[in-house]
Design goal:
The protein has 301 residues and is an alpha/beta fold. It has a single domain (7-296), classed as Homocysteine-binding-like domain (TIM Barrel), CATH 3.20.20. 44% of the residues lie in helices and 15% in strands. The protein has 12 helices and 11 strands. The protein has helices spanning 7-13, 27-30, 32-44, 59-63, 69-88, 106-110, 124-140, 154-163, 188-195, 214-225, 254-263, 276-296, and strands spanning 49-51, 98-103, 145-151, 171-175, 177-178, 181-182, 201-207, 229-232, 238-240, 245-247, 265-268. A hairpin with a 4-residue loop joins strand 9 and strand 10. Helix 5 crosses helix 7 (124-140) and helix 11 (254-263) crosses helix 12.
Length: 301
């Protein structure tokens, strides 16, 4: 099933440049219409799962804007309502669409790229105090599922997974990786094993990584957990500091996507630098790979 792309990339392409400590969550306060439009653009590109603008939303973050805990929780809930508004506004709804409440890592609130290192230097109690109210506010808003995404740190993942059985909502868990390791330097297979058998976890996978790292990760996730796998890497481009521009392929190839599907990926989209225009060929590749898989089944073709 096709996921959406990077919400920040789509907002930027439409003229709203995310920035500051709240990043895309700032649009929940300043530009809710821009969020509805961004979700709508991804739907038009073929996405059938929308991630909400709550990735970097937290009580701590909204406090920097002078907002109370109750107001922060309300804005987290608004992220779900805005995604549903985009679904309702589709001109010709044919296929079902799922809204996934996005919950990003503790490190995203720290800034300085901490979400790409893990090992935050705080105890698990502090991590739980940060996540519990935002996870509760997100679940209370009634998304179809919750995405615990871009997790760099396995200790943080273990804290979040302990909360999952009480949510009553399906969850996927997605790690950000470098090669075959999570960003905190530990083997990726260990991260997948944390989610194996946890009630409520319906998929595991990776996001915010190089497309080249996705294939082995999908194979590992499927082998360790037996669950459907989610994969939404970055564009694949590399920043060239000498020439001052991005180079490389803007999306993974159709052949690459086909290999992911064959290995067990069932939810595929894009992350950083993947706007709606760049998502469209990924969606086409996902659909083509799914068709080929069905035709290869006994009794088809």
């Amino acid at each position: 099933m096709p996921l959406d792309g990077g919400l920040s990339a789509q907002l930027a392409s439409a003229g709203y440049e995310p920035g500051g400590a709240l990043w895309t969550a700032a649009a929940l306060v300043d530009a809710p219409d821009a969020l509805v439009a961004a979700h709508g653009a991804f739907l038009a590109a073929g996405a059938r799962v929308l991630l909400t603008a709550s990735y970097q939303a937290s009580r701590r973050g909204f406090a920097s804007r002078g907002l109370s805990d109750a107001e922060a929780d309300g804005l987290i809930g608004r992220s779900v309502r805005l995604a549903r508004a985009a679904v309702a506004a589709r001109p010709s709804p044919r296929e079902p669409v799922w809204v996934a409440g996005s919950l990003g890592p503790y490190g995203a609130a720290l800034g300085g790229g901490a979400e790409y290192r893990g090992r935050y230097g705080v105890g698990t109690r502090e991590v739980e105090r940060f996540h519990r109210p935002r996870l509760g506010a997100l679940a209370a808003a009634g998304p179809d599922l919750i995405a615990l995404e871009t997790l760099p740190d396995q200790d943080e993942g273990a804290v979040l997974l302990r909360m999952v059985p009480d949510l009553g909502i399906p969850v996927w868990v997605s790690w950000t990786i470098e090669g075959d390791r999570t960003r905190d330097g530990r083997p990726l297979a260990e991260a997948f094993a944390l989610a194996a058998g946890v009630p409520g976890v319906v998929a595991v996978g990776v996001n915010c990584c190089r497309p080249e790292d996705v294939g082995p990760a999908v194979e590992s996730a499927a082998a360790v957990t037996g669950l459907p796998v989610v994969a939404y890497p970055n564009s694949g481009e590399v920043w060239d500091p000498v020439r001052g521009r991005w180079t490389g392929a803007p999306t993974p190839s159709a052949e690459m996507v086909g290999r992911w599907v064959a290995a067990g990926a069932r939810l595929i989209g894009g992350c950083c630098r993947v706007n709606a225009a760049r998502l469209a060929p990924v969606v086409a590749a996902v659909r083509a790979a799914a068709r080929e898989g069905r035709e290869a089944e006994p009794g088809h073709g």
